[in-house]
């Protein structure tokens, strides 16, 4: 190895050692720009967290922000969590508040934010004969345009554009009124009846009233201030058919009548069965009262029903025979004792002597 090469290697080693010492001498960058008393860089709280204790003798202490209540959207070593913005008055919330983002409020519907006055202002309503070219938004007002080239607008609105005019069919319709920027054209078919009904078995849709315009008339009034005009090749309808509303009513009445008749028949049958059962019970109770204890005993022993009147007659006959046997015979006179078998009273007068 030559002396020159050895000298170059030695110089390189010395330069390397000096460079490493220089790097250790340069301090690391501190984003917060603030240090603790012992020389450490103060840490910053990230978004979603705020400073609970500021950096000083000790390191920074961070705390979590409360969702929908407080937020922090920056890195900071000194800022706390800030309260969320509340949307009040004519403002509505477009984006809710989170722990790292504040709520975003915009003007309510049909209002826009006026930059000059810094307030929410009502959107402009396009007049009759003008339609909406650009709808109203939070950052700009409604943009209106005049209705031209066979278009019209017959009412004030902040939403509806200019509508195309109706084209009458020259072969079957007559144009009663021409289309203007503030009214549609009026077409009339002389052959079209004023009331149309469907005769096809497959078409079950209810009949509807067609729009009829007499000569010199303009439009038929509708509920709510609206009006309808006839379109090309087809009639306009004033409303739904009457049958569509009457059929459910008829069905309800018929169902109520049927249910009432069925209930009446069931009640009559039930009442009749109840009366028959009560009459049978009454007859059974009467028969039970007429049977004497002797008859009930014979009936229970032999199973044969005994008439109570026959038992009474037998008892009376036995009693009469016992009385005849007990009477003494008188001397010199023979008396005839007559005993009624049917249990009646005895005769007081004796029969004539023999």
From TrEMBL:
Disulfide bonds join 42-55, 84-97, 87-105, 123-136, 126-144, 147-162. Residues 206-235, 280-335 are annotated as: Disordered. Residues 29-62, 64-105, 106-144, 146-187 form the TNFR-Cys domain. TNFR-Cys repeats lie at residues 29-62, 64-105, 106-144, 146-187. It is found in: Cell membrane. GO terms for cellular component: cell surface; plasma membrane. Residues 1-19 form the signal peptide. Residues 214-227, 280-289, 308-327 have a biased composition (Low complexity). It holds the Pfam family TNFR_16_TM. It is a single-pass membrane protein. This is TNFR-Cys domain-containing protein.
